[in-house]
Amino acid sequence: MELSINQVIEYYASSSIQFVNAFTNRMEAGEKDCGRKTARDVCGLVIPLIGRAHFSFNGSVYKMNRQMIVHAGSSMNIEIESLSSPWEYAVIHYRLINTPEPYREMLHRHFSLSVNDSNHIQQMALQLLQQQAKPDSMSKLHTQVMFFHLLEQILIAARNDCYENQNSITAALEYIHQHYTEELLISELARKFGMERRRFSQSFEKLTGLTPIQYLTEYRLGKAKELLRTSSFPMAKIAEQTGYLDSFYFSRVFKKHFGMPPSTYRSTYKKNPYFEEE
């Protein structure tokens, strides 16, 4: 099954991963490399640096260039053939520590991501390669941070490459973040950002994985949870400050999402600040 960019983003967002190591390799024009396997028990991101090549994992061939990044799983058969010019690439290995059930197969999955902003990604990969050589603990911590920055940039570039109206939807998201306490109608949001409502909703869901209503509700309820944990405001005040004019409706929506009314969430949190709701 082919993965959408939103599924790939969800996989990384919901998983615990750790940078392991990185290396580069260079092949001359027309050179072949076969009879090897990818590293065991880790995943890898193959980032082209120079040239073009056919890169095969378990018999599936990727025609790689600077606008394609490939994810490889553990212990896969590799075949590489550089084309009419030298081929150089970087491999970034990471360990999958924990992931939800739907994504546990990612340790054994390969897939490609198309990226237009490849120059910045290549520069970040090379900086990561230099950073990993530093042996002190603070540098090792910084290496992990750089890995996540690189991963974020790859995913942003891949998402931007997939969807039209990305700038308009990004602006709409920022507007929601600033005005979630107000009454927001999807039709008015669409009109504000120069789109027909249906097209706006479709573009929004493609980019975020959520409909506009779902996104607004999730954002408001997240803010409500924060106020329930950190303030002594009455429920009517919390409802008002998170965009709900009717506190009873707010309570119903909160219970539907979290399995408990907001009053129970508040009292449970006070008893145990470390509890996690289902």
From TrEMBL:
InterPro entries: Homeodomain-like_sf, HTH_AraC, HTH_AraC-typ_CS, Tscrpt_reg_AraC-type_HTH. It comes from the Bacteria. SUPFAM superfamilies: Homeodomain-like. SMART domains: HTH_ARAC. Residues 170-268 form the HTH araC/xylS-type domain. Keywords: DNA-binding, Transcription, Transcription regulation. GO terms for molecular function: DNA-binding transcription factor activity; sequence-specific DNA binding. This is HTH araC/xylS-type domain-containing protein. It comes from Lysinibacillus odysseyi 34hs-1 = NBRC 100172.
